[in-house]
Amino acid sequence: MINKETSVVSPQAPMLLKITDLQTRIAVRNGTVHALDGVNLEVAERETLGIVGESGSGKTMTGLSILKLLPQPGGYIAGGRIVLDGVDLVAIPEREMARQWRGRRLSMISQDPLTSLNPVYSIGDQVGGPFLYHGLVHSRADARQAAIDVLRRVRIPSPESRIDDYPHQFSGGMRQRVVAAMAIACQPRLLIADEPTSALDVTIQVQMIELLKQIQQDTGVGIIMITHDMGVAASMCDRIAVMYAGRIVESGKVRDIYHSPAHPYTQALLASIPRLGQSRDRLSSIGGQPPSLLNPPKGCRFAARCAHRMAKCETDYPPEFKIDAEHISACWLHEGAPHAS
Length: 341
Prior knowledge:
Layout: E1 15-28, E2 31-44, E3 48-52, H1 59-67, E4 75-84, E5 87-88, H2 94-101, E6 106-109, H3 113-116, H4 123-133, H5 140-153, H6 159-162, H7 172-184, E7 190-194, H8 202-219, E8 222-226, H9 230-236, E9 239-244, E10 247-253, H10 254-259, H11 264-271, H12 311-315, E11 321-324, E12 327-329
Parallel strand pairs: 3-8, 3-9, 6-7, 7-8
Antiparallel strand pairs: 1-2, 1-4, 4-5, 9-10, 10-12, 11-12
């Protein structure tokens, strides 16, 4: 499963993003959803961090929290820090966030390119828009040329002729490349890719992964890859963070996560993946349902579905234990190991 090339991230790579105790809430009619509850993440320059987990685990909400594009009304950051290049984004006013950060220093490739693109504007208008908005060019002619250049970078054939086409005139794979072009137009420091391959067939998925790798190699951008596909995470990422019910339950290098999963949830996720050459009467599954985030349990949120649960799991949420230098697991099975700092 793991075929990722040797990481280009050096041990001394500068830290690009550091998230500490991030807590995101969404006020709804029935109460408050604890969408993220104490998330800690780090991304270095030229590094790709994969965030994996079930639907509703908080993967996309983490990306939206970094961008400060939470659902409205009701979404807000209740606590924690999101430090990008030494600046805490949580403290930045919305106007400054929109003008100087969002789209300029950090951007996002959305999951569904058909709904991300405006059907009534040409591709040229949409790709060239960020250059004008952030003042990187001073005329529409310059924005048009810049749009052609960035479309060529994402390998859109004949961008000079296709720039005046509309989204419905592109295939799904080409639309996803257009969304990628918009995301990298202003050469951001951090790129959040939210399920960028989920709507594509396998051949186009490979092309998209290779494109993201090439963009990273050319620009040095840090990437957060949000995906439910463990195979995509293995081929694309340097490290993986496993999310469950709004928390990170395990994180580490790709090989550590795949070959030596420490948390029962990670083990169950990997066991549920069908493998070529293995004959099974039925596929493994994780019984039960994730807890309601309107009223999350006091203890481990995976306890109700865990085959290894103990009495302590029901009452106390485990701290992050260090399995080794870069491998962390939030599970009482590792009590006695040093705590992560």
